[in-house]
What we know:
Blueprint: H1 2-12, E1 18-24, H2 28-35, H3 38-44, E2 72-78, E3 83-90, E4 96-98, H4 106-109, E5 123-133, E6 136-149, E7 152-164, E8 176-179, H5 193-199, E9 207-211, E10 219-223, E11 231-243, E12 246-250, E13 252-255, E14 258-261, E15 266-270, E16 277-279, H6 281-290, E17 294-295, E18 301-303, E19 314-318, E20 321-325, H7 327-330, E21 331-334, E22 337-340, E23 342-344, E24 351-353, H8 355-358, E25 361-366, E26 371-377
Parallel strand pairs: 3-8, 4-7, 15-24, 16-23
Antiparallel strand pairs: 1-2, 1-10, 2-3, 2-6, 4-8, 5-6, 6-7, 9-10, 9-25, 11-12, 11-26, 12-15, 13-14, 13-19, 16-24, 17-18, 18-22, 19-20, 21-22, 25-26
Keywords: Aspartyl protease, Digestion, Disulfide bond, Hydrolase, Protease, Signal
Active site: 90, 271
Function: Shows particularly broad specificity; although bonds involving phenylalanine and leucine are preferred, many others are also cleaved to some extent.
Amino acid sequence: xxxxxxxxxxxxxxxxxxxxxxxxxxxxxxxxxxxxxxxxxxxxxxxxxxxxxxxxxxxxxxxxxxxxxxxxxxxxxxxxxxxxxxxxxxxxxxxxxxxxxxxxxxxxxxxxxxxxxxxxxxxxxxxxxxxxxxxxxxxxxxxxxxxxxxxxxxxxxxxxxxxxxxxxxxxxxxxxxxxxxxxxxxxxxxxxxxxxxxxxxxxxxxxxxxxxxxxxxxxxxxxxxxxxxxxxxxxxxxxxxxxxxxxxxxxxxxxxxxxxxxxxxxxxxxxxxxxxxxxxxxxxxxxxxxxxxxxxxxxxxxxxxxxxxxxxxxxxxxxxxxxxxxxxxxxxxxxxxxxxxxxxxxxxxxxxxxxxxxxxxxxxxxxxxxxxxxxxxx
Length: 378
């Protein structure tokens, strides 16, 4: 009854929701493949998803990594008058940063740059910002200004203005990142955007929700509640096991009732800023074997496109509930063939439930109750 009452309250407040449409754009991988540069790029900038979640892997206090398959971004504005930026809404990090006119990196040349001289509400600081990537770094300085996100106006929001950016960011469609994880992860102690929304009473509920579509348009981030038009059936509420990332406990991953991953239970992070489902190397190898994937001469794990209808479902068993991911969802189909949407994190036992998972389940990130809610997407 408790959660029925909460759900009723959320639906009743639906008129107070603040929505930001997301665009599913071309990924860096697709852009590089079209230019014939993908092989060189991935050899120079290898994908190491755990860099983002393990501070011991980097010098800085908000490590991140190159993810060439990220594709969702939305538009926010900063300053007075507003300057617009495309950002990734990332539940795996906590800082807001955008390129700036201070930046002299090649990555800034083809992205929108914030000009503090053109904003009457900008307040400078001398406090530096450093975000270390697995394949480079971002440096900059913190400033304060008015930020508009889905109709919400946040005055005096701290954000990062980049001075240098990692080379791989040249190929990213988004200009910057808006982090939606917890304050403890924020580089330089910057207060996250959503924390300011909550503190200043700008949202009716201390939660936000994410719907990811496979189409170019239709995806949405909703601040202050949830929208029942994006899901069907009941919401399954899962308590957080750690309040830094959106981390939960997972029981197992099964195929036809047989455990194929997360043996004996494991930890998983629900992350909109990771494109794939990521797990330990041995488990990912096992998953790929079970679904009939093979490694091609270029190192990609591929499947025969005509076999997708014959491939098994994956079941992610979490908090007593089973969340099914069919082959049509975990196989990525492009003009260059078909590959599984699984990534390896090496020897780390932690899993990351990225966009491949979130596309199937409308996801609610509840700060008040420290829970993640999952419901089948429409």
